Structures are given as C-alpha cells and as structure tokens.
Amino acid sequence: MTPHGNAAPAPEAGFEFRLLGPLEVLVDGAPVEVGRSPVRALLACLLLEPNQVVPMDRLVDTLWEEEPPASARTIIQGYVSRLRKMFGKRGPEIITRSPGYLLRVDPERIDAHRARTRISRAHGLEPAERSRLLTEALTLWRGPVLADIAGSRLYRTIAPNLDELHLLALEERIAADLELGRHQQLIAELSTLVERHPLRERLTGQLMLANYRAGHRAEAQDRYHELRHRLSGELGLDPGPELRELYEKLLRDDPGLRNPARHDVPGLGMRRPVPAELPPAPAGFVGRYGELGALDDMLAGHESGSSLITVLTGTAGVGKSALALTWAHRVAEEFPDGQLYASLRGFDSEREPLTPGEALTSMLKTLGVAADAIPVELDDRTALYRSLLAKRKVMVVLDNARDSDQVRPLLPGSAASLVVVTSRRRLDGLVVRAGARVLPLETLPTETAIELLDRAGVPGKSAAEPDAAAELAELCGGLPLALRIAAARLAANPARGVSDLVHELTDERNRLHALDIDDDADTSVRRAFDISYRSLPPVHAETFRLLGLVPGHTFTAHAVAALCGIEPSAAQRRLRALALAHLVAEPEPDRFGMHDLLRAYARELPGEPDADIAALRRLLTHYLGTADHARRFLRPARDDLDFTGEPRPEITGRAQALEWFDSEWPNLVAAVRAANEGGLHCLAWPLVRLQFNYLMVRCPWEDWIRIYTDGLHSARAVDDPAGQVLMAAGLGVAYARSGQLDQALRHYEDSYAVAVTTGNAERLAMTQVNLSSVLFRLHRYDEAKTHCQDALRVYRELGDRYFIAGALNNLAMVEQVNGELEEALAHLREAEALYRDADDLETLAMVLNNCGEVGIELGRLDDGERCHHEALEVALQCGSAMRQAAAYLGLGDAARLRGDVNVARTRWDTALAIFEEEGSPQVTEVRGRLEEITRQAG
C-alpha cells in the first residue's frame, strides 16, 4: 500500500465516468472538460481496464493509426500529466507501473463496469429481479458508445463489444419479461428491435413467442418465414435449430408455449434429505463486485459443462470465507438438491485439520446415511458420497482447506454439482488434477474499506472524519479482518474518534497489538498470521522472517538470495513456496512483495541481532554491486567507487540498466534510509552516490534530496571527506535543477569548503564547476567565469577530458550571456566531441540543446534546429525526459522564428507537459511563451 504521512482526502470523491455514449467525466454531477480526442482516448483505455496495468505499447498502438512518432511515449506522459491534474487529489490515481500505467479507481464509478456487474448479477435470479437488474444496466447506455472518438482505433475495437453486450442484456431482459407473462407489452418493443436487427434470431424468436401468447398465431409464423427468406437470400443460410424448434412447436400448439415457463422443483424431500448446511452469511459484507461477477460467470459456465470447482485463495484475513458464504446464499436456489458445507480447519489455531474421512462421515449423515451404514475405508466412503450426489444438483462449500489432498476425496463425481473451496494456499494440485479454477482475492480498495468500517462499526463516523477514515483504511492495508477489528474497537468506545485510532496505528511497532480484540484471543490479525507462519517448513519460515528486514516494499530473487546467503535459484523456489501460502505476493513476474501488516508481523518475529545485521549488510552489498554495474551504462563513473565485483543480476545495456533502476528505485531509497538508521554509514553514502547517474536521467527531486541528505549524514558520521564532497555536491545539483538556487549555492559552497581542506586538485575543480553553474543562474557572471577558468586550467593540466567538457559547457554559458556567441559555440562544439567520446548521452543531449540555442541566437536557424533535433534523438535514446523537454522548447523557438505558430505551439505544449510531469521550474518559462503567442494571435 502507499504509505501515508498526513491524512489525505477520500479518493475519487464525486467522480463518475461514462463510456456508454460520448465519453464524459462528471464531478459531483457536473461535467468537466477532458481535453482533445487523444487525451480522451487515453482515458478511455485506462477506464476500460481499471486497476490493471495497461502497457505503454498498447497505448501507443491505440492512439496512433499510422507509424507513431519517435516521441510517442513522451507525448503520452504529457497526456497522463494532464489527466492527473484534472483528477487532482480528490480523483482516482494514475500510477506509473511497468510496463505502462494503472488507473486506481472504484469500478463502480465507471458505467461500463456497473453495467457488466448488474448483467452478471442478474444471472440465475427470479424473473422479476432479473428484469429489474437488467433494466438498470440498460439505462446506463446513453447513445452510441464512445461516439466522440468514433474515428479512433479504440472505437473500432471496443464499441462493437459494448454494443453486443447491450443487445445481449436486452435479450435477457426480454426473456425475463416473457417469463413474467408480459408478452402483450413486449410486442411493440420487439417489432422495433427486429426491424433494427433483422438477422438476430433470438429477437425474432422472442417476437414469435410474444405474438403467439397474445393470440397472433399467423403473425408469429409470418415472422419466422420473413427471417428464413432473408437469411437464405442474403447469407445462404437456414434459421438455427432453436428457432426451427420453436416454429415446429408453434405449428403443433405445444402446451409448453401457452404460459410463461416455470421451473418448479420436484418435491424430493420425502425420499431423500435436502441438506441446507450453509452457515449464516457475514453481516456488513461490502464490495467484491468483480469477484462476485467472476463467481456468477463460473456458475454460468458450469451450466454449459465447464469446470465445477473454484478455489478462493488469498492471505489470512482477506475475506475468503465471507465471500464464499455471501455468494453461496445468493445462488442457493440454483441448487434445489441442497447445499453441503464443511469447515476443514486447515489453518486452525486450536484443532488439527479435519481429515477427508471425518468430513465425508459428516456429509454422508447429512445426506441420510445411517451411522452404521457408513463404510470404514476412505475410498468406499468417497464412492458412496459420489453415488448419492450423482445426477443431483448440489453446492458443496469446503472452507479453510489446507491442501489439495484434503479436498480431492470430497469432490462430487458428476458435473451436476458445484464446489467452492477456500484456502490460504493456491491448491495448484486441484488445478492440475481436477481442472479447478483459482480466484485470488486481493485487499479492498480504500473506498470499499471505508464502507466496511462504517457497516461493521459506528455508521456515520467515517463521514464525520473522512481524511482519518481513509488513513485508517490504508493503515489496515485494506485487509477485511483488520478493518472489522478496527471497526469493533470504534464501536466499543463510541466517544473515540477515528483519528485517535489512526494515531495509535501509525506506529508500526504497535500496529498489530492495536488490531487485537482484548476479550477474544482468536480475533486477531497477529493470530491469523501466526497460524500461517507456523505451518511453514523451517527453511521457509526463516526466509519469511528475514523478509521483514527488507527496507523496501518489493524484492527480487537476487535480492532475497543476498539476504539469505543462498543462490538465486534457491531463493526463487522459496519465494514461490511463500507465494503459494499467500505470505508473499508476485504482483509482476519475478518481483515479489508483502502486505504491509504481514511485513509488520515479520519484523516482530524474534531473531539473532548479529545475524540480522549481517543479512542486511549482504542485501545492501547486493544493491551496491548492481547499482554500480547498472550506472556505468548510463554515464561514465566519475569517482573511485567500485563494487562491480559483487554478484548481481545480468544487465547488458542502457535500457536494462534504466529498467532495473526504475523497478528498484523505491527499494534503493528505503535501503539508504535503513543503512543510515542502522549505523551502516560506510555503505549508506556510497549507495547514494551510485544513484547519481540515474538521478540525472529521471530527476525525482524529492527522493534525490532525501537520499543525499541521508548520505551526507552518513559521510559526516564516518568523517569521510570524499563522501562529504560528493554528497554536498549532489544536493547542490538537486536543488539547482529544481530551481532552488540559494539552497544549491549553500551546498555547493559546503562541498567546495571540504574540497579545499583535502588539497585534492581534481576534487576542488569539480566543486568549482558546480559553483560556476549556480553562480551563472544567480547572474553572478564574473564569479562564475573565474571558477570555470580555474577548473578548466586544472583539468587541462590533469588531462581529464571528461571534466574538461563540463568546464567548457559552463564557460560557454557565461560567454553566451556576455554576447561572446562565437566563442561560446566553439567551446560547446569541443565539449560535444568530448561527451561523444565518453558516451555520456544525457549530458551530450544537454550540450546539443545549448548548441542549438546559441546557433539560433547567431541567426543560424537551420543549424540550431538540427542540434535540437539531434538532442531530442539522444534524449530519447538515453531516456532523459528533461532533455527531451528542452529539445522541444528549442524546436518550438525555431518554429516561432520561422513564423509557424501552430508548430511552435505544439512543440511548446509537449515541452510544458514534460516539465509539469517532472516538476521542473522551467514550466513558468514555457507558459510565458504560450501566453505570448496566444495574445499575438488574438
């Protein structure tokens, strides 16, 4: 879960999204402007797959009909930035998650998903309720689907499916109304529909049946002949078997057609008992619309002969039993021969798991078998059980199963019955050997979690403190068991505010204790986790405990291998075993994570302090080795640090290096903090330094400042001059690039002061280059030039070509502002050549943009534009969004000078979107340009 600092407003408040017609976004019932067609198409893509990662490649393919531009990904980033701005803090959240974006939103706020949910829920209900639900779903269609982006590829892909869903729902609603005897009222509606869809056989059949029941026998037959002639003439086909059978029944006045169909259940109770063993459904059940819909689909598929077993699986306390029982009660009438239930006690704190033999004995007695007639052998009991259920339509709920072997003898032998199993393990053995379907349960989204707090606790408390309620839901991690306990604590003390409980839970060390019920030892999040943990083999239990030491929220097999001191292949096997037990999750291939409360539980488990420090040191060394290896693909390593000899995952190029940093970034930030707090200062500041090349490409300002502040503390703690110079300098770069120039100057001066004490000429020159850059931006040009020239002289004496380039670039900036344009361009060209030799693409893109700017200022428009185009190409290659934005800015300037205002506006719009996304201070500069051309155009 996303960690909370201060309380945040309830997400998505007042937002509603409409796809079943022109795309609309409503806030508190009022429409808001979404933007141009591409932005609308992007939003529609994300809304059609809520809470799922939509890959960037699919977004690119959807938004561009022909060959997408080279900057397609950057443009999409800009569109995402605009949508985030539109949503603000109250709306849904767009999360960047490899390989694309995920829209975190309650599906019930999207009309298409509300429609699907109601259509799914209608299946199997009584006709009146089915008609009502389907009518609700149909009213959500407001016209042609996505009509406002009708020319897009997305429209051609999605609209036919949603149109077909509308027709299917319409046919189902009409079928329900026919069962209710509403044939007279349906004739006019069906006549219109048949004219609109003349080849749709089911609609024609429904109209035939309505006419027949209304006494219009001849017209019913005419409708059949009209369709038969049309099918033959247009397609060379005959009507299908169902319609032909209906026609034949019409001809012979089949009695079954005269009245609405009834499905009375034969009274079998006199011959055999009809079990009704389901425990009561839990009170206050909320949400789970997607899972309920999946179970409904499973039931529909079961009737057509597909798998009869579904396994609800998930971590302790996620609500598996609650979902199973809630759904089972909803569909109980679909199983007229009864409902069997067995609590298998697979993870019971007090009693041993129920054996298959014990479970069969209980169920055979329920089915009417006398105790002395129950066979002794397990196989004989299973055979009798299956014989009794043959040709009977029974639901079997097997709750809290430990493994597949416990469940397999309890499976009915025929496809007439249906089985729902709940377990903390995945039970893959049932998938392989019995064709079971697995339905994993995740934690509840924030809004649903708040609803559960209200229903299970004191109604209205959440509404009185919405921010605190949202934070309480986050602290409980969306885990239903934790939420119910929190609600119970609020209900036990009505005078207590939600914010009071939030304050108690904020301290992770106290969180699990706070989620206990004092007078009920079994009602406890810790107890639920205890049972899962104690059932693990020792080696897996120790691995789980060590995972509590991981500072970040996710981990790979390589990281766990380092933590445990084992090979990556062994770590992978252990993680898979923990995933099967739902003690870790695998949100994406080969990347694992833990629920926040499970992480807190793991950290409470006792261990050996020295051994734990050694494990953390191994993990940090893994991060050092991989980061050092990866950074060398991004820019040259310009320091003496070298950890490349450490074991690491394979990284062979720039793209893989960036991908590794992107995936591991939150973990690296947390690792630096853990090393600093744990006193491992000799590892902390080097780990910070090894992120510098990545930071220069991606520019996450807040994280940059946070880890360099920690790094500077560690360097000072061990009195390492090199570390102090590099950490202070890194802070200066972060503050300078984010526009906080006074702060940047302070840190650059600190770095320079330490460098002076070391007497190291190269280190001192580096600090002078840094000082020159910020002094230039503070308009202190003479001081900036002096520092540039001093540094350039030292680097030329040392023969350090890479740092010569940096000094030349900064000197050129001063020369440019002083009007010495030819000198500036000459120095920039020399720096360009040196950066090409060094293969430092990020800085090369910066120098090329500077060349373009000076070239345009000299009046050499073609040369300047060429440099900016090349800068854009290089920036795309190395993944630097900031350099891409600068290139678009320069290209817009060139277009403006050529008099092409529309091209200039487009390029500046793109630059603005990127600068906004990156939090750059250059946003103001670009907005000024756009406002100026708008005024001139007006």
Automatic annotation (TrEMBL):
Compositionally biased spans, kind Basic and acidic residues: 255-265
Residue ranges of the region described as Disordered: 255-274
DNA-binding region of this protein: 8-105
InterPro entries reported for this sequence: AfsR-DnrI-RedD_regulator, BTAD, OmpR/PhoB-type_DNA-bd, P-loop_NTPase, Sig_transdc_resp-reg_C-effctor, TPR-like_helical_dom_sf, TPR_rpt, WH-like_DNA-bd_sf
Signal peptide location: none
Pfam families to which the protein is assigned, alphabetical: BTAD, TPR_12, Trans_reg_C
Keywords from the UniProt entry: Coiled coil, DNA-binding, Transcription, Transcription regulation
UniProt key word DNA repair: no
Source species, domain of life: Bacteria
Recorded family membership: Belongs to the AfsR/DnrI/RedD regulatory family.
Protein name: BTAD domain-containing putative transcriptional regulator
Organism of provenance: Saccharopolyspora halophila
